[in-house]
Structures are given as structure tokens and as C-alpha cells.
Amino acid sequence: FTEGAQLFPSRFFYSRRVGARPRGEADGAFVDYPEASTILGAAKLTGRLRSGTSVGALAAVTAREVARVYDTTAATTTKVEVAPVTGFGVLRGRQEFGADQATVGAMGATFTALRRDLEPGSALDSLYHREAYAGRLDWNIRFNRGAYVIDGEVGFSHVRGDRAALLRTQESPVHYFQRPDARHVRVDSAATSLTGHVATLEFRKDGGRHWLYSVFASRESPAFESNDVGRIGNADGQVAFANLRFRETRPGRLFYNYTLSFETGGEWNFGWDRQFYTTRWDAEVTFKNYWVTNLTFWIDRPSQNQAQTRGGPSMGYPKSTVFIARLQNRLGAKNGWNARVYYGWDPIGGLTNRISGGLSIRPSPRWQVSVNPNYLRVIDPRQYVATLDSGPAATYGSRYVFATVDQSTFLMQIRANYTLTPDLTLELYAEPFAASGRYHGFGHLAAPRTYDLVPYSTDTTATPSIGRDTTGAYVVRDADGYRRDIGNPDFNVLSFRSNLVMRWEWRPGSTLYVVWQQNRGFEDDRGEHVGFGDLWDSVRARGDNFLAVKVSYWLPVH
């Protein structure tokens, strides 16, 4: 489904939805759960006509899926339906115009539909939407020989289903309609449908010797929902940005070329709570030896985060500052390298420090090897942990528990390509990964729209306090015998993934692929900082090996 994917906008069609893992529940002593939905049949058509019309269509049907559940008491195995029969449909058309080259552009339309075969009142009927529709009109107009561009779109979404399924959607992380301090949305427990809209508009000046600029605005209504066929992380946003750039493309005494840019803008929800507002300065300089450096400095202003409490009241976050510097040698050099430093901080102890780079070498025309290490240290003083009951009236009767988390991540991407003959190649990709997180400084939100916490003492005789039980889990205690277990969020994770591919084009147009894939992993709750040595420990972790063979044969039909 990925071929021709550029024709389909991902917000409205995301190919991984077709055949995705089921979401139905199946509990038991032993559960054999399907990892994907079987695709019973699918067809896809994409193409472009001489008239400048591009078309795309996709239809697919996935099967009813069941999980096998074993009951140790009755010594029986039962089948539980976890996904219904589902039909997908996508249509896309795009027409180009403007043959005189002074004004050119395109207008397009997309429509998606989904239908599930759900039995009313069943467990799956309360989980899935029965029907989902979405569509959009989009345009891209370039005039004055491409110097100016107008981009935009308008779209809609509409989902239908059981009241329980629509309630689940309204309270999902995409929407959080249940937020107790929200003034512009509310949960409708009787709703059986949800309709939303999106719109974007951008005007850019892309041509000219020195000055370029752009303005951009978009809105995504709180009820917009396209995740049945497309992809959306969160709704309820209104965005506005402006960008101004100055560039010099004529070589001078010191620089081959350079670009300076300034950007400002932010996002507000439909209740006009500012979710972020940023001001950013960038500089890119190409030196006379063709080395390139990039410098970035930006400031995020104090704002609100409507999702930080996971469905609770809006929470504030402070101003933050970021500085980034990057340097690389000449593009196309036989041996290439780059280095990048990212440093960010805020006034309440937040810190982000990333050091990354890359090295690419070509020992011979047959060999190409690249290594990209990356180290990240993040201290987040307001990491969400849990929502507990019996909270103060100021936070609507709940306790929204946060902590400082100290995270470290080390990963390395390794690629190696070897050409034995023009028709026979070996390609290796490997990524060892290690990460950790340790939590401390617990407390609960003192009041909505702030980032102030009521701290938990580590002295268990004080109230409120936090300590560990015999299993290592954290326990929150308060007056009058209040005691709640919030587990142990500390973690260490190791992962190693690799692919080794042999590609042999044994005759023109006909190719044999042999793939060896590894997927290894390990995790525990030590919370210890990771280092370079942990990357090699990931290679020794337990995991799975996969071997796959693919053959394509070209039929010379005339």
C-alpha cells in the first residue's frame, strides 16, 4: 500500500490501518492473540493521465479475527472475537492546470470510507466505530513563474456508532472532552455520531534574490476524528505562523552563501487557551570550502497544556529556551561527517541535552559504511505519573501526580552496503538502543492552569509522603489513612534491531531478496543511566530471528 503513497494525504489515509492489530479484549490464563488482521482482499490503482489528472483508488477488506483463550479451571479453550469484518475505501483525484507556466497549480479531492460488520450491543460494538467517513478539497496554486504559492485545504470527518464507542472517542487522548475546566467542549454520553472539520491556508513567496516569507494558518476542530482510516494525534487546535528569510546566494569573500530567518507563531485551542507560542531565529552558512554550519535559537513562551493531566484540568508550563549548533563537511565528499549539539533549559530545572553526529566512509567503490551515534539526556520536572482519587476541590477532587524524571538514551544507527557485482548486493542496517528513566521529586498539581506542585515528603511520617513498599513500588500516603500504590515507573530498556538483505537481479526486471532480521530486547526497573557499553549488551539480549525470501519475476508481455 505504500507505492504511490504521496498521492494520499496521511491525515486522511494511513496505510497501516489496513490489517492493523485488533483492539478487542481477551483475558485468560493463556491467550493466543492475533498480531494483525488478515487482509481478505485488496486492490489499489494509481495513475496520471495526459491531461494532468492524477487518480488513485483503494479498496480492502479485512477478516473477522478471534483470540483463543484457555481457562485453567474448566480446562477449556474458547474463542473471543477481537476484530470485526471491515471494509476500507479511498478515492483520490488531482487535476493540474496552467500550461502557460505563468500560473500553474493543482486542485484535488480525497474521500475515505470505512464500514465494520458489528453486532449491536456486542463488546466490539462499544469499542469500534461502525462507520467512518472523511474527505477534503485541496489546492496548490503557483503564479508569477512560481515565485508565489497559495496552498490550502478544507476537510471534514464523520463517525457513527454505539453510544459507548462514541463516549470512548470523546474521552480518548485525541480529544479529552471530559476536561473539567474546558469551556468549549463537553462529553455527550448520548451521542451516536461525531462530526468535525479541518482547514489550512498558506501563502509563500519562494522566489526572489534576497527576501522570502510565508504566513500559515490552520484549524482542527475538537471533534475532528480520522483515525479509523487516517492518522491524527490530537484535535482542538488553531495555529498561526509567520516566517521571514533573507538569503544571499552569490559567493562573497568569506561565505559561499548564507540564509538568515525569523519565525514566530503558536497554537490555541478553541477555548483560546494558548498551547504554545514560539519565537525562533535560524542561520545557515556555507563556507568557501563548502562546509555548512547551522545555528538555531528559540524561545517557547509560558503556555497551557490541555493534555498534560490526561483528561484533567489544563496545566501550565514555563518559558523554555533552546540552542542548536550543527557542522558538516562538504556534501558529496568521499568521506562525510557531521556533528550536532542541542541544549535546552527552563527555570524549574528542565534540561534537554543531545549530542549526535554521523560518519560515512567509502573505503572502495564497492563499500559504503555509515555510523550515526546519538546521546540524549532529558530532565523533565513535570512528568505525568498517575491520577488518584480524594484530591482537593481546587483540582476537581482528583490528585494529578507528577515527578521529575531523569532520562538517558543512547542509540547508534549502522549501515553498510557492499556491491559484489552490479546485480548482486548486500545491505546491512543495525540499531542498538539503550534507554533509562529514574523518577524523584513526586507531588500533585496544586491548582489548574499552573505548574505548581504540592510536594510529597520522603519522610513517611509526614503528610503527604511517598515511599516504597517491599516490592519496590511507590506508595502515596496522606492523613486519615490514605494510601495509594502507583507502582514503579523507573525503567531500563535495551533493544537491538537489524536487517541483512541480499538482493540479486538474476535477470533484467526479476529480483531475488533474502532477508535476515533480528529483533532483540530486554527491560527492567533499575532506572540506571545508560552508557556506550549498554549498546553492546543489547546485541546479547534475547529475541527473535526471522528469515524471509521474496522473488519477483518480470513477464515480458507486449
Write a structural description.
- The protein is 3% helix and 58% strand.
- With 558 residues, the protein is mainly beta.
- The chain has a 22-stranded antiparallel sheet that branches. A three-stranded antiparallel sheet has the order 1-4-5, with no helix packed on it. It has a three-stranded antiparallel sheet with strand order 25-26-27, with no helix packed on it.
- The mean pLDDT is 93.
Give the SSE layout.
Elements: E1 30-32, E2 39-48, E3 53-62, E4 65-71, E5 76-83, E6 86-97, E7 103-116, E8 131-143, E9 148-160, H1 163-170, E10 193-205, E11 211-220, E12 237-248, E13 255-268, E14 274-287, E15 292-300, E16 303-305, E17 315-317, E18 320-328, E19 336-345, E20 351-361, E21 367-388, E22 399-421, E23 424-445, E24 453-455, E25 465-468, E26 474-477, E27 483-487, E28 491-507, E29 510-524, H2 532-539, E30 543-552
Antiparallel strand pairs: 1-4, 2-3, 3-6, 4-5, 6-7, 7-8, 8-9, 9-10, 10-11, 11-12, 12-13, 13-14, 14-15, 15-18, 16-17, 18-19, 19-20, 20-21, 21-22, 22-23, 23-24, 23-28, 25-26, 26-27, 28-29, 29-30
